[in-house]
Amino acid sequence: MNETLPPCPECSSAYAYEMGTLLICPECGHEWSPAAAEPVSGEEAVIRDSVGNVLTDGDTVTVVKTLKVKGSPSGIKAGTKVRNIRLIEGGGVDGHDIDCKIDGFGAMQLKSSVVRKA
Prior knowledge:
It is built from 1 helix and 9 strands. It is mainly β.
């Protein structure tokens, strides 16, 4: 067993394990590819959505799960379309790597793990 596995990108758990070509977190159930998580030096980091599609500036995405928003009684519903996204270089704050404007909420940042390319 490889003792140098990276922590879970979702919950930062140190207990990730390998299953085939994927890494799996036993605490939150998140699955990810170790190759996608570590950009090769000299290459630009690629930001992927929840199903693995590559995202680019100006894409339209759909939120895949309902998100709680501080100060809002309803939050952002699953299925909400977000147009003209901008990607944040270097991961942003707390892993939020998408900058966007959502109708009814205004400007905010999202994680690529909660959206799917439309």
